[in-house]
C-alpha cells in the first residue's frame, strides 16, 4: 500500500463519484454492517474496466454523513482491494471536526486510499481563515494524502472566494477540487495559479474545456454509475475536439447527458434538490440498472413520489444513452 | 444509575448550558484527551450548589462538533458523577446520522445522563418528515432517555413549523426544547398541546413568563457560567412576580442580563455570531472568572480582536451583575 | 384639513390595514382608474362605525406597488373625505427613492392624511445609515406628517436592528411601527426609549399586551376587513384583562383569530406567502363578504387554486367568528 | 424617430451601461432637475466615437430607482439626440408595477429609445408565471420596443430558471438579456433556442465567447466609462481569436480588466456590493476621469471610506489600462 502521493498531473479524465452500495434494510434506524461489499467491489472493478480515470467516494451521495466509521473502513478496504491500484481512489473523510477528520484521513490512507474528497466541518459556517486552516491542518497531519477540496457552498455554507483558492493552492496536498458550476472557474484557476485541477460536473465539462482547453482536462460525474460509457465517451470526444477544433460531437453528448440530468432536478430547484440529494441519487443509480446502490440511509430516507419518478426517468434515460454509445448508434 | 425517565414536570427553573472545559493545548489539531475533567466536576458541583435546576451540555457552545467520542464519554461520566443526581443532566448527542445518534444516546444514558439535548443531522437540510422521523427513531431506540429538542434554525437549517411541534409532541420522550426567540412561542405551545416545555434563553424568559405565566416556568442560559446567581435570581423574581403581579424587579434583572449579553453580539448580527459562536461563548465564560472553559477547539479557533474584546466585556459585566446579586446591592 | 400632527398617544387600539378596492378589470395590464372609490368610502365609514381606532393603507396588501400615483391620490382623497377626521388615517408613500417619497408624502398630507406608513426604498438592500437617513430626510421635509415605520424585513431587505430603533426614535415624526412578530419587541421598546408605539399584528397582540401591558396598547390587522368586530372585541377584552388579571377571554379570541389566519398561510411558509401576499389578502377579504376588495393588480395576479381556497376558507372563518362576536355567542 | 424594431442580429459587440450624470447637489433630498444633460450628451457621443456598439441606461447604476420620471425623460431625450441613431440605445423602465412600466416604456420609445433594459417589479418576489406574464404584458403593449431582460437575481429576487428563458424566448420583442455570470449560460442558450442574445459582463465575455464562439458575440460593461477602449479592444481581440484560434491577447485583456474590477469588490462579497452598488459604480466612474458621473442620489449616498478607496483605485487602474490600449503599449 506504499503508493506515491498524487500530484496535479494525476488528475485527468473522467472521474466517477460512486454511491456506497447498501444492503437491504440499510434504511432501518438500528441496522448495522449496511454496506454491500460485494457490490462495492463489483462496481469499482466495472468502472475501471469501462475506462474511467479515477473514483471518488463518501461525499454527500456516498452517504459520508450516515455511514458508521466501521462501515466506512469496510467500504474503503473493499474498494481499494478491487481497484488494485489501476486508478486513483479518493475516500471522503468529512466530519464535524478537524481532529476527527485527521484521524479518519490517516486511517483511509493506511487502507490504501490515494486521497480524500474533503468538505469543511459544517456545524458553524466557517470563515475564510477557519476554512484555509482546516485544509492546512489536515494536510500537515497527513502529508502523503492528496486532498480534493469538496466545494459545495450549500452543504458547507462557505462561498469559496478567490482568496480561498489562492491560499489553499499553497498547500501541496491540495491538488484538485470537486467543483460546482463554471461561473467563477476562470477566476479560480487564476487565483490558484493553476496548481489546483478544478473538476466540473460532466454537464459543465464541455464549457470548461472550451474555455480552458489546456488546463480543464478532468471532470466528475455522479450519473456515470448509470452507464460509464457516457462519460468516457465525453472525455474522448472533448480530447479529439481540442485537436480538430470541431466540437459538435462533444456538444451533442454533453447536451444529451444534461437533458437526462435535468429530469431528476426537482421543481423547487437546487434548494429542494439539496433536501433530497441522497435519495435522488440512489434512486437514479438503481433505475439505471448498471449498479445496485440500495436504499438511502436515515434520516435521508424520504423521497416523495414525484421526485422518485423523476430520478428513475433520469437514470433510465442515462442508461439508454450509455447503451447508444456502447452500440455505436449515438452519433449515427 | 437506574434513574427514572424524566417528564414534563421535571423541567422547571433555571437551566444552564455549560461549555466543555478544555485543557491547555486543546486547540492543537493533534491534541487528545482535551477535556479538563477536574474543572468539569468542579463546575457541575458549583452550579448545583448555586441552585440551578438543571444542566445541559454538548450543544454548539459545548463543542459537540469538535470533541471526540472518547472525550464526550469522559466528560459525561465526570459530570454525572459530580452531579450525584441532584439535578437533571442532559448530554448532547447530535451527530450526522440517525444511527450514530442512537448509539451515542444509549451510551450517555448508560453513563447516567437523564436526557439528550438533540439537534438534527445537518449535512442536508431536512424536510418536516425527516425531522419528525429522526426524533421518533431516536425515542423508539432509547425509550428511557428524555429528549430536549435543540431548536436552532440556523445551525440545523430547519425552521421548526407548528406542524413539527404538533408531531413531536406525540413522542413521549420529547419533553422540552432549547428554544430561540419568543416570536412563535404561543403558536408552538398551542401546537404541542402543552406537552413540551419550551425553554427560552434567559433574555426572553421575562417576556415568556408574562405571556404564559402558568406554563413558561423554565429557561436556559449560557451566560450563567459567568455567575449563576443572575439566573437563579431571575427565576425567583419571576416566581414572585407571578404571585404579586409586580414585575419590576424581574424586568430590571432581565434587562441587565440582556444588556450584558448584547456586548458580545458582533456588529454583523446573528449571521456573524453563528460563525464565531463557540469562540465567543468560551471567551465570555473565561472572562467571567467563574469557570475556566479553556480554548475553543479546531476549526473554531479564530476570534477577531474586536469580537474577543466584546465577549470579554460581556463576561465581565455579567460577573459584576452576579456579584451585585450575591451581595444584595443589585436592587438597592 | 389643518389637523394637528399626531403624537405617540394618538396611536392606541385596533388599527386596520385596508386593501385598496379595485374595480372589475383592474387586473388588466392597460387598465386605468382602477380604484373603486365608492367602495373605498363605504369601507372607511363602516370601519369607523364599527369602532376601529385608526386606518392604514397603501402598504403591500394595499397595492402601493401597483397603483398609479393618480389612483393613489384619488383613493386617499376619497378615504379622507369618508373618515371625516373621526380616526387617524395613514397613507403609504413607499417608493423607490427618497425624493419621490417626499413628494408623495407632502401630497397625501395636503389631501388630509395624518401620516404615512412608510417602507424603505427597496432596489438595493439599505445599510443602517441609509435606512435611518431615509426616515430623517422624509421627516425633515414633511414636518407635520406622522410616520409609521413599515417594518417588513422580507420586503425591504433590512433587519431592523436595535440600533435602528434607537436612532429613528430620535425623529419626532416617527411615532409608531407596523411590526411583525414579537421576538424582539422588548428589545426594541427598550432601544426606542418608549418613543415608538410598536403595533404587532392581531395574532401577536395578546402576547405583546401581556409582556408590556402598559405600553403595548395598539395593534394592526389585515383580516379585520372580513369583520372588524373581531379586533375591536380583542382590543376591549385585552383592556379588561389588564384590569382584572383574567386573560382567558382575550386568549380565546386571539387563538380563534390566529386559527383563522393560519388557514391562509401557504404550505411553503412565509417565503411562499411573500410571493402571493397581495392575492391572498384580497381573496381573503373578498371571501369574508364584509367588503369588496376586487382583483389583485398586475403583476401579482396569480394565485394557485390551493392557495386561493385556503384564503377563502380563512376569510369565511373570520367572518363566522365576527358574526359570533356580534351576536354574543362567541363566549357563550 | 421612426426607427425599426431591433432584432437579435442588432445585438452584437461591446455594449456600455452608462451612469446618469448628476449635477452637484443631486444627493440633496430636495434636489430637482439633477441630471447633467450636457455631460449626458457628451458621454453618449464620446462612447459612440470610441466605437462602442450599443448603450444601455437606467438600470441599477443608472439610478433608475432614484431619478424622477421627469428627469428620466430629460435624460433619454438628451441621450437619444446625442446618439443620432448611430448605435442602439436602451432606456431602463423598471418600476414597481406592470402598468407604470408600460406607460414609461411607451414614453421612452416616443423619445427615440430603441429598447428597454427591463427588470421585474420587486416589491414581492415574483413566481415564474408572474415574471413571464410581466414581460409578455409589456411586449404586447409596446410591440415596437426591444426588450433586454435585466436579469439580476439579487435585486429582483428571481432566479431565472431555464423554464423562464424558454418562455420569454417566445416573445418576439425579447431579444437580449443583461446577464450575470456564465454558470448557466449554455443551459439558457439551449432553453431559449438561441432566440435571446445573453450579454455577459466584460469579465465573463472571454469565457462565454470560447464556449459559444458563434453565438456569444456581445457583452456589457459598466467599467467602460472609465475608458471604452478596453472593451472595444476586447471585442476586437475576441473576434480575431475566433478566426485564428489564438486567444492569448484576448485573455490578457480580459484578465487585466477583471483585476481592475476586483479592486472595487468589497471584502463582504456580492452581498456587500449590492448595498453600495450605486455609490461604488459612480465613484469608479468619477475616478476614471473619462466622464463625470457626479454624486449618487438618495438613499444610496453612503459609501464607507474603505469602499470608496477601492472604487477609486479600480477606476484609476481601468483608466491606465485604457490608456495603454490607446497608445499601443498594452500588448507590447
UniProtKB/TrEMBL annotation, chains A, B, C, D:
UniProt superkingdom: Bacteria
Catalytic residues, chain numbering: 150 (proton donor/acceptor), 178 (schiff-base intermediate with substrate)
Keywords assigned by UniProt, alphabetized: Lyase
Listed SMART domains: DHDPS
Molecular-function annotations in GO: 4-hydroxy-tetrahydrodipicolinate synthase activity
PANTHER family: 4-HYDROXY-2-OXOGLUTARATE ALDOLASE, MITOCHONDRIAL, DIHYDRODIPICOLINATE SYNTHASE
Family: Belongs to the DapA family.
Protein known as: Dihydrodipicolinate synthase family protein
Organism: Ramlibacter albus
